[in-house]
Structures are given as structure tokens and as C-alpha cells.
């Protein structure tokens, strides 16, 4: 964006559902809230309804910084029935009190908005990116700028960041000047002066006087860039040390933290395709694909090639996570790209008009056929927030859970399903359908826009990380040791069908299997 605009809204003639919820659970966000203890009332609820009504019933991620007595969280719970709520508060006593209310699908954490580090740690620990993030904390200028500067890292593209209670007598140019370095990360922004005949914002001390104003910012798709002058040299030294065995690689049974990838500086336009292999070989010769060498193949990879080892020297155990160890590496360390795609050294998506069945088998001697069929720049350029490319569903020999149990430990599927629904209630409907379905989007082959890849990875690594914390490994035989890899396919199937129901178009492609 190039500027922060100004709006003046009078909502005296408006009465929204949120106005009523914020009166039922008394909060000063509503001009209809009357209290003998606090007669402070803002005209925000109608404005919020105008902003959010279209997406109100979606499975959004909503966060509020500053929960006071938890009434606003109760109002958001009523207004956003399918959302996950995150409340952040400085006072441990208020957090404990809020937790005792047992609000469904709500989590709480401590935060200190005077510290950018505290803001980052609190939002990062939530392991999500937000559709809506609201600051209703101290109302102090420097703290509000802290929230914007750090919070933008945790907003999804199209997400909304709102700073409440901006004082009307403060010079608006202070905000424009302080936020100018962040303009590049937002598509638009507004200072919204809110008026209502019943609003009451008078008093003789902060924060109770004349602060009926909102700062509303809309996140764009720009990756946050933080280049360090010695970045490239450091990476070269790290790669050399890993290759030569001079530093120890720590294998993780599960992700240490599910953190947003936008905190890393890399960003490239266009599509990036990857081929995952655990063998010391270059799978195919196409300039559009980068090979990611995983597990034991990482040590012997060609000079300059990438592996599943993160910059901090850790990686997921490839024997358990299979191709997801490479996906975790790209998601965490980048480079972030507009579109990201993954193939397997033996399985590729086909763009050939000659292929229309779910899977075709091609001999390794005919590798040139694969190279000619596995990429189409025109088709891949269509990938965006409303369009993705996936492998056609594979027909199974029975229902998904029964088929899984015939090869693996059946209780693992039930555990994964329970953990997923606990974290992501909006996936429950498709999990119910999966119980009776006899086909599945398998193999984890896709081309997704980065926002969808980010969302998928959060689901994968949070749910499967929970699974790993409850199931000891190794499991006793080589096949069962890949428990997480096989479970990830069922989780991907549910995720992509849920996205399809929400409007994502699936371009289904044949899987090429190399024998």
C-alpha cells in the first residue's frame, strides 16, 4: 500500500449480531453496553460486522491481544462459531480466570506488548497464522507499533490486523511515519473514526478518553525479508560443515515448533518444484525441479545441492517422516515462492494429454517420457488461492480406515483422527466421510500456492507432532517405522477435500509411477 487512508463511520442506525453479543457479554466494543462500573462505550461492533460478516462462518483463526475479563472472547465465540480463538493477556490471573470459563476452541497465552520479543514468542507459540488479529491491550502508541511490526509476520494473506482505541487527539501522521516501513506488507490500511449516538469515550485519564478510532490493516502476500550481510557466506559454511561431517546433525522425532515460514528472508517469484529422494541419485533432468536429498543421502549429495537438514542443524527423522522431512525443510527455511510443488523420485504428477487414469507405470528405461510429461508451465501458472494441482484419488481395496488397518496399526489412524479434530474442528466433517470412503488423495503430490502450502504444513506438523509425542518410535519393523508418512496421506486427503468444499478448485492429474 502507498498510504493509510481515513474513514469516518457513524453506526447509530446499525444493530448487528455482534452488537448484541457484546452486550450479552458486556464489553466496551459495543455502544449498547451499559454498566454502572464502567460507562465507557465504543462504536466498534457494527464496523467489525461490516468487515467480517462475509467470512463469519468460516473456520477462521482469530486472535485478540488484551482480554481483560474474557467477555470480548465470549462475544467472538458467539460471532465466529467455527473459528479457533486465541487470547493473549499480560496478567496471569486474568488468563487463569479465562481458562476456568472453558470456552470451546479457545487457547490463552501470556504476552507483554512492550516487548517485541514477547509478542513474537507468544504468537509463534500459537503455531498458526491469523485471519484476524486484534490489539486491545495498553492503547499506548509504541506498544501498538510493536504489535503491527511483529504481528504482520503471523497474518495470512488477506488477513486483517486491527488496533483498537487510537486517540483522536493524537496526530495521525505519527502512525503513518512509524508504520511506513511496513507499508510493503499490506494491501491497504485505514484509520477509522467511529461514531454513534450512544458511544461514550470521555474521562480524565488514559485509556478512558476520546479514543473511538481503529487502525485497520489488510495483509498482502509479500514475504517478510530480513537479509543479513553475511547470510550467503554463513549458508556456504554450514553446507560445507554438514557435508564434511564437522557438525553433528540432530534428528528430531517431531517438529520442535510449528512456526510461520515468513520470518525467514528468502522470497522468490513464480513456481518452485521439488523432487524428494533418499537415494544418492539425481531423479530427473528438468531445470524447473530442485532435488532435495533426505536421510542418508544428505551426506553424499552433490556440491551445492539442498538436503532436509535445516539451518540450525536439525531435521526430521526421514525414516519415519519420509518425504515430509523435505517439505518441513522448505517450509521452515525457504525459499518461499508464489507456488510450491512436490514430487517423489519414483512418483510424479503428469501433465500429458495421453494420461487420464489415476496412475500409469513407466519403466525406468523410459525416464525421458517422465521428463516430458511432468511439467507444464502454462498449467502451473494458474495455481493460486482458488486453484491447485493434485494427484487423482487412488481407489483402495476397502474403506480408508480398514485399508490402513490391513497394512498398519489400526489404532494409529484413530489416534491421528482424534488429535486432528481436537486441533482443527473444521476437519471433522471430512474425517467422518473418510470413515466410509474407499478412495483417497494419496502420495502427497501437489502444486499449491504458498498460503495453502503454509496452511497444509501447519496441519501436518502440528497434528503429526502431537501423534509422535504419544507413540514411541521405532515401532519394531521397517515398514511400520514409517507410520507418520502413511498417516500424512490420510491427513492430506481430509485437508484437500475440506479446502475443496471451501472453494478451492482441484486440478486432478495422473500419477506416474517409475518401476
From TrEMBL:
Protein name: DUF4422 domain-containing protein
Positions in coiled-coil regions: none
Domain DUF4422 span(s) in chain numbering: 274-499
Gene3D superfamilies: Vaccinia Virus protein VP39 (3.40.50.150)
Amino acid at each position: 500500500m502507498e498510504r493509510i487512508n481515513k474513514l469516518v463511520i457513524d453506526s447509530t442506525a446499525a444493530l448487528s449480531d455482534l452488537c448484541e453479543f457484546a452486550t450479552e457479554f458486556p464489553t466496551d466494543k459495543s455502544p449498547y453496553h451499559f454498566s454502572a462500573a464502567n460507562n465507557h462505550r465504543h462504536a466498534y461492533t457494527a464496523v467489525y460486522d461490516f468487515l467480517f460478516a462475509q467470512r463469519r462462518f468460516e473456520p477462521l483463526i482469530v486472535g485478540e491481544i488484551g482480554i481483560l475479563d474474557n467477555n470480548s472472547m465470549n462475544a467472538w465465540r458467539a460471532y465466529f462459531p467455527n473459528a479457533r480463538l486465541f487470547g493473549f493477556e499480560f496478567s496471569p490471573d486474568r488468563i487463569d480466570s479465562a481458562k476456568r470459563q472453558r470456552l470451546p476452541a479457545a487457547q490463552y497465552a501470556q504476552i507483554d506488548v512492550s516487548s517485541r520479543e514477547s509478542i513474537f514468542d507468544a504468537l509463534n507459540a500459537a503455531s498458526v497464522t491469523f485471519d484476524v488479529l486484534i490489539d486491545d491491550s495498553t492503547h499506548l502508541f509504541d506498544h501498538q507499533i510493536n504489535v503491527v511490526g511483529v504481528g504482520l509476520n503471523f497474518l495470512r494473506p488477506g488477513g486483517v490486523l486491527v488496533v483498537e482505541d487510537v486517540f483522536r487527539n493524537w496526530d495521525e501522521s505519527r502512525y503513518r511515519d512509524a508504520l511506513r516501513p511496513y507499508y510493503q506488507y499490506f494491501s491497504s490500511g485505514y484509520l477509522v473514526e467511529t461514531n454513534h449516538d450512544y458511544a461514550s469515550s470521555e474521562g480524565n485519564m488514559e485509556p478512558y478518553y476520546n479514543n473511538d478510532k481503529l487502525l485497520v490493516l489488510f495483509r498482502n502476500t509479500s514475504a517478510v525479508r530480513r537479509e543479513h550481510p553475511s547470510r550467503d557466506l554463513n549458508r556456504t559454511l554450514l553446507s560445507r560443515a554438514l557435508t564434511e561431517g564437522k557438525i553433528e546433525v540432530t534428528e528430531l522425532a517431531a517438529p520442535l515448533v510449528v512456526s510461520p515460514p515468513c520470518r525467514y528472508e528468502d522470497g522468490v517469484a513464480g513456481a518452485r518444484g521439488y523432487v524428494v529422494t533418499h537415494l544418492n541419485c539425481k531423479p530427473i533432468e528438468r531445470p524447473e525441479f530442485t532435488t532435495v536429498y533426505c536421510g542418508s543421502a544428505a551426506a553424499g549429495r552433490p556440491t551445492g545441492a539442498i538436503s532436509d537438514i535445516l539451518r540450525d542443524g536439525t531435521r526430521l527423522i526421514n525414516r519415519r517422516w519420509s518425504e515430509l522431512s523435505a517439505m518441513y525443510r522448505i517450509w521452515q527455511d525457504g525459499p518461499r515462492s508464489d507456488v510450491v510443488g512436490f514430487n517423489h523420485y519414483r512418483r510424479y504428477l503428469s501433465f500429458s494429454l495421453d494420461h487420464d487414469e489415476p496412475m500409469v507405470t513407466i519403466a525406468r528405461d523410459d525416464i525421458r517420457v517422465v521428463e516430458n510429461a511432468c511439467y507444464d508451465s502454462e498449467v502451473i501458472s494458474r495455481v493460486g488461492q482458488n486453484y491447485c494441482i493434485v494427484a487423482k484419488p487412488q481407489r483402495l481395496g476397502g474403506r480408508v480406515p480398514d485399508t490402513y488397518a490391513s497394512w498398519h496399526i489400526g489404532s494409529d489412524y484413530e489416534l491421528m483422527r482424534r488429535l486432528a479434530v481436537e486441533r482443527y474442528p473444521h476437519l471433522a466433517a471430512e474425517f467422518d466421510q473418510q470413515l466410509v470412503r474407499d478412495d483417497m488423495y494419496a502420495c502427497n503430490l501437489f502444486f499449491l500456492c504458498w498460503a495453502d502450502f503454509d496452511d497444509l504444513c501447519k496441519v501436518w506438523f502440528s497434528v503429526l507432532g502431537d501423534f509422535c509425542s504419544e507413540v514411541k518410535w521405532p515401532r519394531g519393523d521397517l515398514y511400520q517405522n514409517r507410520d507418520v508418512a502413511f498417516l500424512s496421506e490420510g491427513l492430506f486427503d481430509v485437508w484437500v477435500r475440506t479446502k475443496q468444499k471451501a472453494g478451492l478448485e482441484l486440478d486432478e492429474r495422473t500419477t506416474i509411477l517409475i518401476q
